[in-house]
Each structure stands twice: as C-alpha cells, then as structure tokens.
Amino acid sequence: MNSVFLKGNITRDLELRYTTGKSVPVVEFGIAVNKTWTAENGEKRESVTFIDCRAWRGTAEAIAKWFHKGKPILIEGELAQEEWEDKAT
Fold this sequence. Notes:
mainly beta; 11% helix
C-alpha cells in the first residue's frame, strides 16, 4: 500500500490546467513540510522538505478555488518518484 499524509504550507501559486481531449482538471503546486526537534545538546533544530504535488478532477478544482500560496494544507495521497536526466551541456 502506498499512502501518505502531508501537512505543510503551499510554496507557490497553483497552476490549474485541463488535459487535452477529455478536459480533465489537474492542479500542480508545491508544499513545504517543516520538522522541528530538540537535539541532545538542547539546541532547537529544524528541517524543511519541499514536495511537488498534483491533484486531479474535483479535488483539483477545490484546491484551486480555496487555496493559495502561503496557506496551510493537509493532503492524503500516494508518493511517486519521478526521475529525469539533465540534458543541458
């Protein structure tokens, strides 16, 4: 099973578009997930993970309508890792 919950803040403006052919709505956005903890020496530490997200159909339209850059969001979905080669020389 591939299931994940992520809570973070939207990092950039949402990009709502529609697929060609069937005109299915899709929204793409990024979130920043913050983690804070106290190290063994008592020092406060923080790390941030940036994640690109994509939502489809009714979920895409709802996110595009109600959310914007900087707003917190809680999402449930599945993880997918994309790989590519940088062909710039």
